[in-house]
Amino acid sequence: MRDRPTVDDVGTAVYTVPTDTPEADGTLAWDTTTLVLVTVRTGTTTGLGYTYAPAATAHVVRELLAGTVTGLSALDVPRANERMCRAVRNAGLPGVAAQAIAAVDIALWDLKARLLDLPLVALLGAARDDVPVYGSGGFTTYDAERQDRQLRGWTEDEGIPRVKIKIGESWGTRETRDLERVARARASIGDAAELYVDANGGYTGGQAARAGDALADQGVTWFEEPVPSDHLIQLADLRRRLPMDVTAGEYGYTLPYFEHMLAAGAVDCLQADVTRCGGITVWLRVAALAHARGIDVSGHCAPHAHAHAAAALPNLRHLEWFHDHVRIERLLFDGVLDPGGGSVTPGADGAPGLGLSLVAERAEPYRVQ
Ligand SMILES: [Mg+2]
């Protein structure tokens, strides 16, 4: 093809948004969330991508990636992704660099779809129209009333038939309260909705096995990171012992990480985060690894960064409709998706790319870089 469009410019912006109330899971607490936005431009067409990561991520984009990508074909995203991975060799790919690459990669896919005037799902090729979501929040900082209100908001107001709460409070030292909160969650949502829990690696192996039996009594069907996700043997052991699905993968930054997790038999459903693992280019490869083993994939957080790619997967379980990120994406972007009934339909409105546009006047008060 002659006269291929090339990437003319790569830009960054950083937004730090306070949470609506202090949030914590089993092993971390926070009261703000930072979104690093990347824009890539070809002529008058601009694509956007983002990651939830420290502001330093934007610096990595500017210092190590922008010069690497500028001048490349805007149609050849895998080439740009590979060049970026090589450019960060000495900085270290896992972590901030992979998140920086992810944001640029997502922006490049958005740009290409816009250049072709297609929703991104149409460019990738759909395997499904509807992408199931699950409501995710239930922070350990919530009191009973707030947890109940959030859960009923998903199940009763929005019709989402699956929800997740955090457990493993204070590194697993509040197990009694964890189980009380799970029982209250079941009472809030009734028997018809699925109940998931996420310990964020807060339990020890034996503790997770004992808690797992109690969680099974509440009909919990998803036990995420019962132990730290690097402990693949413990995950595999819990997977064999417990009736519910054992899941992990949100801290995967490279393709071999996911291969090791799958090869260890550590998960029933593989979680992968498109904003961490190197973008849509790598996320699709992660899904192929899982598909080859008969394992489903669930998109971790950042739902609007995942939705179009998720619709391209034959082995998609669902996306995480994460309270903190949904709130930020609704604040910063026009074109957000409606999870009513328990799924989103990316590309249904025909808008090109991810279908998102930054609303500058709403975003500007939160801009820190
Ligand atoms: Mg998690």
From TrEMBL:
Its cofactor is Mg(2+). It comes from the Bacteria. SMART domains: MR_MLE. Keywords: Magnesium, Metal-binding. Residues 144-245 form the Mandelate racemase/muconate lactonizing enzyme C-terminal domain. The keyword Magnesium applies. One of its GO terms (biological process) is amino acid catabolic process. GO terms for molecular function: hydro-lyase activity; magnesium ion binding. Transmembrane segments: none annotated. It holds the Pfam family MR_MLE_N. PROSITE patterns: MR_MLE_1 (PS00908). Signal peptide: none annotated. This is Mandelate racemase. It comes from Streptomyces fodineus. The lineage of its organism: Bacteria, Bacillati, Actinomycetota, Actinomycetes, Kitasatosporales.
